[in-house]
């Protein structure tokens, strides 16, 4: 028991129930999805500390809440991020923001959920955000 207490990780690695689940990147190559802020007027990504009284420091407007596909790149301090956009499976309509989405005239899937699409790869992201 003292050997286990000294180094539990080496023992747990041999027990299948304790092995960590391997996360594989999705079709877009992202490792996870993260929430963030984006200013559509200035077309730039923002973080909380950039904001001045909850607004974009450049234009003064409230930024949009967005989701990003995030991929760690070797040798870079910041991970590679691509905004998630929205598309309809029934019509060719797309939008940068879910609240701004408008279906094309005569779309038969107006009531169905929109597809999330990685703006960099054009494919769906692989992981969902925790609720």
Break the fold down into its secondary structure elements and pairings.
Blueprint: H1 2-6, H2 8-12, E1 32-39, E2 44-46, E3 64-71, E4 80-87, E5 94-95, E6 115-118
Antiparallel strand pairs: 1-2, 1-3, 3-4, 4-5, 4-6
What does this structure look like?
By secondary structure, this protein is mostly beta strands. The protein has one domain (27-118). It has two helices and six strands. Strands 1, 2, 3, 4, 5 and 6 form a six-stranded antiparallel beta sheet that branches. The two termini are 40 Å apart. The model has no long low-confidence stretch (mean pLDDT 81).
Can you describe this structure in just a few lines?
With 131 residues, this protein is mainly beta. It has one domain (27-118). The protein has helices at 2-6, 8-12; strands at residues 32-39, 44-46, 64-71, 80-87, 94-95, 115-118.
Euclidean distance between termini CA atoms: 40 Å
Radius of gyration: 20 Å
Count of DSSP H/I helices: 2
Q: What structural category arises from helix and sheet content?
A: mainly beta
Instruction: Give average pLDDT, whole number.
Output: 81
Shape descriptor: extended
Q: How many β strands by DSSP? A: 6
Number of separate domains: 1
The quaternary structure here is single chain
- β-strand percent reads 25-35%
Low-confidence stretches: none
Helical percentage: under 10%
Largest sheet: 6 strands, antiparallel
H and E string: HHEEEEEE
């Amino acid at each position: 028991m003292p050997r286990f207490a000294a180094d539990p990780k080496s023992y747990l690695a041999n027990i299948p129930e304790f092995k960590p689940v391997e996360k594989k990147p999705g079709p877009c190559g992202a490792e996870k999805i993260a929430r963030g802020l984006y200013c559509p007027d200035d077309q730039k990504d923002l973080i909380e500390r950039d904001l001045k009284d909850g607004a974009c420091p450049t234009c003064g407007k409230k930024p949009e809440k967005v989701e990003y596909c995030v991929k760690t790149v070797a040798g870079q301090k910041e991970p590679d991020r691509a905004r998630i956009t929205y598309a309809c499976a029934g019509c060719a309509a797309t939008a940068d923001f879910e609240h701004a989405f408008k279906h094309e005239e005569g779309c038969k899937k107006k009531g169905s959920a929109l597809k999330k699409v990685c703006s960099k790869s054009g494919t769906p992201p692989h992981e969902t955000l925790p609720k």
